[in-house]
Write a structure and sequence with these properties.
Elements: E1 7-14, H1 21-29, E2 32-35, E3 40-43, E4 50-56, H2 68-78, E5 85-93, H3 100-114, E6 122-130, E7 136-145
Antiparallel strand pairs: 1-5, 2-3, 4-6, 5-7, 6-7
Length: 153
Amino acid sequence: MKNGTISSRASIVQRSKGQSAVEQSAYISRTSLYSDYYGMTYNRTAKEDLVGAGVLLPEHAPPEFEDRAVLWNSVEKNEKAKNAQLARSLKYSLPNEWDEATARQVMECFIKEQFVDKGMCADYGIHRSYNDKGQPNPVSYTHLRAHETGAYL
């Protein structure tokens, strides 16, 4: 595996800003998901740059949370406050040299060790788009439950 630089950016998915954890999940997984809280379907299937996606759960999480729609609708339902922090959102720009298999392997291992093993549910997607010069721009998005799963079960 070639070495390269990884840069990152973190943000919070906030209800007070009109943001939806379900919408963010649809974006990173390039799927269509319905938000029970907002009564809307978020269809993010138009782009074809998805190279990998998944949901990783800690041992104590309910198995039905493997379905990202169930996971994030549960979060939106159980966070009652108008200013609720629904999720942590992390974006990693990955080395251009990494192929799809390497990106997925490295990111799944990193997410598991840094977040899932510490009790957080993680939803991730790896996108590979190309700039106008034809160079790859691989990016990994990770969406984390803002609190441990035991906090709202």
